Amino acid sequence: MSGSLAAAAAATPVSRIGLGLAAVGRPGYINLGRDRDLPADRTVEAMRRRSHELLDAAYAAGVRYLDAARSYGLAEEFLADWLRARPEAAGDVVVGSKWGYTYVADWRMDADAHEVKDHSVATYERQREETRALLGGHLALYQIHSVTPDSPALTDPALHARLARLAAEGVTVGISTSGPAQGDAIRAALEVEADGEPLFRTVQSTYNLLEPSAGAALAEAHAAGRAVIVKEAMANGRLAGAEVLRHAAEELGTTPDAIALAAVLRQPWVTVALSGAATVAQLWSNLGAAGLGLPELEDLAEPPEAYWRTRSSLPWS
């Protein structure tokens, strides 16, 4: 599937941008500005309609990679409904999801915990069946959610054997990463083999102008033949208000979010960068990054530990 993802991304400049459903699959998330972006009454049906509006707009614009996860509330269900209603699109998109976090907020925005992480074999088997029941044969990519260097997912031979069986069924197996040591997790994942072959064929990591520390490891992953998916290119909305991006956007006649995404897409090792849009207007603005030339930007990078500390303090809204 890493090949099919790369082929889909190579079709047009816009198709190097994928649509992530984290912001619209559940009522609470940590993107800044969601209080303005989403309906005040975030019922299941209201969020289903919003996700379908975004999927319609993204597909019409040429987006061909769609990203969900078990922990994104009902994102897999919303996506499955959309695929059933639009068979012409179902055979034309690459669908990825992730396992390893369980959504526990029960559709409450004020929950004490929204998701629980567990990379055990038992969680994989449970969540794989849940994903299979919803997405069935549409699923092309299944990633372990938020791998860190100490994750048992990197060293558990029983889990690796099960993931290898999934790969033998035609589903590409990958990882996503998080935290200040993403580079270490990526490099460890590149060494994991099953039956003498690399197990993890895709890597999805946070990379943006504030947190570029995984860049060298992602370049190594690309050089080793892995597809690279970038998430959180907007730093959970923090970059939308960055003064340097506002000035650059004014010069180019575009928007700060397009600048932030274009800064990611100009990296030669990026296969797909995800839009986390919560509105169709945001999606169209994000898509302005495709083919956008950039001026030189000042270095905005924060120390990784500081970046992730700030991220962990963002409120669920």
How would you describe what is shown here?
- Helices cover 41% and strands 16% of the residues.
- The longest helix is centred in the first third of the chain and has 18 residues, at 44-61.
- A hairpin with a 2-residue loop joins strand 8 (193-194) and strand 9.
- It contains 13 helices and twelve strands.
- The mean pLDDT is 95.
- It has helices spanning 2-10, 34-37, 44-61, 75-85, 87-90, 121-135, 157-168, 182-190, 215-223, 243-252, 256-265, 280-287, 304-313, and strands at 17-20, 65-67, 94-99, 101-103, 115-117, 139-147, 172-177, 193-194, 197-198, 202-206, 227-231, 272-275.
- It has a single domain (2-313), classed as Alpha-Beta Barrel (TIM Barrel).
- Helix 3 (44-61) crosses helix 4, helix 3 (44-61) packs parallel to helix 12 (280-287) and helix 8 (182-190) packs parallel to helix 9.
- The radius of gyration is 18 Å and the shape is globular.
- The strands form three sheets. The chain has an eight-stranded parallel β-barrel, surrounded by eight helices. Strands 4-5 form a two-stranded antiparallel ribbon.
- With 317 residues, it is of the alpha/beta class.
